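ok so for the tutorial part 2 we go from a plain amino acid sequence to predicted structure tokens. step 1 is just haveing the sequence, like this:
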Amino acid sequence: MINLAEYRLYYYPKGQNVVYTFPLGIGREGWGSPVAHTTITGKIPNPTWTPPASIKAEHAANGDPLPNVVPAGPDNPLGPFKFTLGTPGYLIHGSNMKFGIGTRTSHGCFRMFNNNVLEMADMVPVGTSVRIINDAYKFGSSGGKVYLEAHTPLNDDGTPSVVDKHTAVINALLKREDLANNLRVNWDQVRDVVAAEDGLPTEIGVPGANTPVVSSTPIDLQQ
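step 2 — the prediction. this is what the tokens look like for a chain of 223 residues:
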């Protein structure tokens, strides 16, 4: 699973009670990464790169023409390994750059640190399901406490989004029926978490005695 708003990939190996997680670079403004449900269709070590016509045109306009094919090696922007996806035109791959992971910097593909993509290469089989989502707000529970994690909301094309944060947080929580129907919320804490958008899970409530979250009176999260 890839969460665009989080710039992060999660891999859940089949039959194992473990999750691997890795940071990603995603599509920059004008070249957004898609929200989709697709699969891993291929695994290619030491890939060559055939730049699409659109990227060649962009580079040519900037005075930096690209060859028709970039061979495998240290100058290849796909790095040492690539996964092809069932969504045409998009890859999960390494990089020849020292920067860009955790930012909107690619032409829509999912860029990984080389050591991470090589680790994934040893674990992930062809045919693995890939869900690409765009969820800025995540809820979880542990030790009798409920936590909220907030990221900067993005449009589906990967650009910053202006949203009604109050509505977005409530909708995200209501998806968690196991929490929303029995929760006492500290709305002041929710406001602080949403304002920070720092990706840190923070306690925002505890299970209550049949206290539906929608019966509470939330503050204005836009303030």
